[in-house]
Amino acid sequence: DLHYLSPDMIAGTEDFEHALNSDRKLLKESSAILYEKFEQVRADKPDILLVSGDLTKDGEQECHAALAKQLQQLQQDIPGLKIYVINGNHDAGNWGTSLEDFKRIYAEFGYDKAITEPRSDCSYAADLGSKYRLIALDSCDPDASTADGMSAEKLEWVHAQAKAAKADGRYPILMMHHNLLDHMPLQRIFSKNFIVRFHNTTAELFADWGIRMVLSGHEHCSDATVYTSALGNKIYDFATTSLTMYPLQYRIIDFTDEMISYAAETVRSIDTAALSAAVKGYS
After folding, report:
1. How far apart, in whole angstroms, are the C-alpha atoms of residue 118 and residue 235?
2. CA 221 to chain CA centroid, nearest Å
3. Element (H, E) at 74
4. Which stretches of 92-250 are DSSP H helices?
5. From residue 53, how far is each of 15, 238, 239 by CA, in Å?
6. Which residues contact 209 (CB under 8 A, 6 or more apart)?
7. In a 3-state reduction of DSSP, which class is residue 8?
8. Cβ(80)–Cβ(44) under 8 Å?
9. What's 193's DSSP letter?
10. Phi/psi of residue 153, nearest 5 degrees
C-alpha cells in the first residue's frame, strides 16, 4: 500500500492540513519514501514488482499519473523488470478515478500483458516468466470505502483462471488488495472490512483449485498465515504493510523449484533536504 501523495497536491489550506495531521500515514513524506524505496529496487534488480493496491492517498488522478511516470522510469532503469498492479479501495470508484481511468493510467503495468478478455472491473491474469501465472483480482467494492466486493461471479472467474494456469503447466499466484485470512486475533470481527467475507469458504475453494499463494495488503500489517482445506490443500496469505506507515516495509520473495523464501525490507532514511524543497513548510 503505497498511499502516494504527490508534492504538487499538498496545499497549505486548513482543511488539507487537518486531513494530513489526522492521518496515521506519512503522506507529506510519501514522495521521499517512495524515492528511497525505488532506489532500493534499482539496487536489488528484481525480476518482478507487484503492488497489491492503494497506490495513492485517495485515488487522485494527479497522483496516479505521477506514480505511473515513476513506474515507467523504474522499468526503463532495470532491464527486464516487469511491474504489475491491482487496485485497492483508495484507488478507483468513488475517489475521482474510475475503473476505466485506472486501467488506462496503469496500462503498461499488467493490463497490456493480460491473457484474459477485458473485464468491467480491474481484474486480469498475466504470465510471469515461464512457470507462473498471476491472477490479479479486483477485490474491492467500488461503492464502499473499505469493504470487499467479492461475488460469485468473481470467484468463478478465479476458478477459471486457476484451471487455465494448471492446464498450461503454470503455478498460479493470486494478488488482491483484501486479506484472505486472519492476520491478527479476531481480525474477522474487529477489522471485518479488511478481510474478504466468507473468508474460510473462499480459502477452501482457492486451496482446492490449486492456488497456494495469495499476496495482499489493506490491513497494513506484515504477516504470513496458512489455511488447510478439508482435502489437505494448503494456501498461504502473505500480507504486506503500507510503505507510508511504520515500519515502512516491503517484501522480497524468492522462488526456486525447492522452496519459497521471503523477507521484509525497511526504508530507513529519506532525503530531508529534498523533501523540504518539495513540500512547503516541512522542517
Report:
1. 27
2. 13
3. helix 61-77
4. 99-105, 152-167, 187-190, 199-208
5. 26, 14, 12
6. 158, 159, 162, 163
7. helix
8. no
9. G
10. -65, -40
Residue range 120-162, pLDDT digits in tens: 999 999 999 899 999 999 999 877 777 788 999 999 999 999 9
Residue 142's CB is within 10 A of a number of other CB atoms, namely 16
- For the chain (length 283 residues), average pLDDT per consecutive 10? 88 69 86 96 96 92 95 96 95 83 97 95 95 96 81 96 97 96 73 79 97 93 93 96 93 91 94 86 71
Q: Which three cell numbers stand for residue 61?
A: 488522478
Angle made by CA atoms 110, 114, 116, in degrees to the nearest 5:
145
pLDDT digits 0-9 by tens, 46-56? 999 999 999 99
Q: Give me the pLDDT at residue 192, please.
A: 67
- pTM exceeds 0.90: yes
Pairing outcome for strands 223-228 and 234-239: antiparallel
The amino acid sitting at 125 is A
239 in Cβ contact with 216 (< 8 Å): yes
